């Protein structure tokens, strides 16, 4: 009968040579980490000194696409009026501050190099002043106070037509909108959505909501009547009745 071979116990204890090698490796790792930490501290120190000694303030601010707000008003709403450090003012934060303002629909901020900022805004422009609400109605339907060169809605308008009027005014060319002085809800038996517009040049225009876009051709239409004063009926064709002096 064959005898089983006895297994020799192999010691797992590292040799003196291996222990010495491991200690040597740990020492190198500690030295390496120490050098990295020292380099980081030096860089932070240099950055701190540069930050407090160099002038890193914004030097030029350009504002684009603003028509209602002035450049200075946009800069103040962005909280850049004191020309702060360009390092502290990230584009995202400037955009957020601007878009929190009721008069600004959206904002895009870009830095040109280190010291220049370009702000492009889309304004939530005012459409008309509602005399009954004593408020200015903005492009998105919100209301605000303030003095703006906008038409005045002088009488009550049913809610359903009121919303349609807002939409139609928002679609008008801004130049034409600025030429409307007053808006009066003026229905008749035929058309319950008719309005009478008083123009800044002394003319009057009857207009239906479903044909409201015709007013965009106002200047060209009036040229055909040799710029005489009168009443333009755009709710039924393009009939013009001259008013006698």
Automatic annotation (TrEMBL):
<keyword id="KW-1003">Cell membrane</keyword>
<dbReference type="InterPro" id="IPR013685">
    <property type="entry name" value="POTRA_FtsQ_type"/>
</dbReference>
<keyword id="KW-0812">Transmembrane</keyword>
<keyword id="KW-1133">Transmembrane helix</keyword>
<keyword id="KW-0472">Membrane</keyword>
<feature type="compositionally biased region" description="Basic residues">
    <location>
        <begin position="14"/>
        <end position="27"/>
    </location>
</feature>
<dbReference type="GO" id="GO:0051301">
    <property type="term" value="P:cell division"/>
</dbReference>
<dbReference type="GO" id="GO:0005886">
    <property type="term" value="C:plasma membrane"/>
</dbReference>
<keyword id="KW-0131">Cell cycle</keyword>
<protein>
    <submittedName>
        <fullName>FtsQ-type POTRA domain-containing protein</fullName>
    </submittedName>
</protein>
<feature type="transmembrane region" description="Helical">
    <location>
        <begin position="33"/>
        <end position="54"/>
    </location>
</feature>
<dbReference type="InterPro" id="IPR034746">
    <property type="entry name" value="POTRA"/>
</dbReference>
<feature type="domain" description="POTRA">
    <location>
        <begin position="56"/>
        <end position="124"/>
    </location>
</feature>
<dbReference type="Pfam" id="PF08478">
    <property type="entry name" value="POTRA_1"/>
</dbReference>
<keyword id="KW-0132">Cell division</keyword>
<dbReference type="InterPro" id="IPR050487">
    <property type="entry name" value="FtsQ_DivIB"/>
</dbReference>
<feature type="region of interest" description="Disordered">
    <location>
        <begin position="1"/>
        <end position="27"/>
    </location>
</feature>
